[in-house]
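Protocol step 4 of 6: structure prediction from sequence.
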Amino acid sequence: MPEGVRLIGASTELTALADRLRAAARAKVLTPLEIVAILERWGAALGAREFEAIPGIAFLRLWLRRGVLEPILVREFGAAVLDGTWRDDGAARLGVFPVGLVGHWPAGNVEIQPFLSLSCALLGGNACLVRVPSDLVEQSESVLSVLRGVDPEGLIADRIALVSFDHGETSLQRAMAAAVDGAMIWGGEEAVTQVRALPFPHWAHIAVFGPRLSVAAMDALTWSKPDEQLAWCQRIARDVWQFEQQACSSPQTLFLERRAGHDHEGFIACLERAFIEENRLHPRLAIRPALTAAITLARANWLLADQAHRARYPLSPDWTILEGESSAIPTPTQGRTLYVLVVDDLGNCLARFDGAVQTLGLAIGQAARERELTELAARHGVDRIVKLGRMHVFGSPWDGLDLVRPMTRVVRHLPSQDPVAPPL
């Protein structure tokens, strides 16, 4: 039974908990279809009003739907995996099995990430040990508490344990790493480097989702159409508002391709109106003082750096649009701060990308041009290229990696009943 987030004080607690989770997973074999059914009920139960204040909860509910999870399993493994069927591979057969116990190190800046991460491992049949960042403990407990109601037999609830301890507790970090058979690691460069250096068993499967940033781009043909501007601006605003721009998939910069005879200021004015409306619909309930200071500093530095720079924002730090001309991606500010940069050619802009760019949100008027830009972006390190308004659609692959497959093993069985060739 999930007991909320356990506060861990000794390495022996983690070892005992790991043994218990493995035993629970081995006690009852579940097919992916059975796991998906429970996850979908869990997501539906999170629709209660008391969860609305958790950032990203609507996204988590969407992610846990059967219509989202089953296609991911089929894409990564084939349809046979849904009911646990082995598939033929010549004279042999192949079956998909869990690695065992998966440890999760989610980042502290996305409230629903512990559950996005553990759901991927659960779909592979694994048990999950999740270290919850201290800032996410209260919200994580409330989300986990719903699971028992939709899983009274504990079929997956008994496979999950959420724990909390200070990230500086090296002995506990090492004990958790040593106790797992796989790890899903999320976060910034320093955090990822520290976790990867832990003493995982040599057989452990490791999946790392490190620090990335994302940008948006629109060609001149698209943004210059007056009758389409509002819809595109609303899509951009929704992408900016999700997760307070703290997710790797959050657009930090919007590149606009210049078009002769068309004033991009009209489009940016439309974007400003979309930001005002999005802020009315989804106002920020609280803000950290450090973020307020960062937003204020970003506004001032931008306007002082170049007389041609412009900015649009309210007196409060609710949102910010910083305008200029450049092909370089500015250092992200976050907190609903979008840099809008005018460029002569999107191709020249994308050719400057490196592996730091995770997601590219596009609005391109011609399919042939979009395929050309997609090829260019992919060759310069971008892993996800999507339509503006869908930058946060969580799916597989993510960061260029499958989400479920890395935490599974493909077992090959060659039947012993096959005729044995006589020795030479």
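Step 5 (inspection) to follow. The chain has two domains: 5-210+399-413, 213-387.
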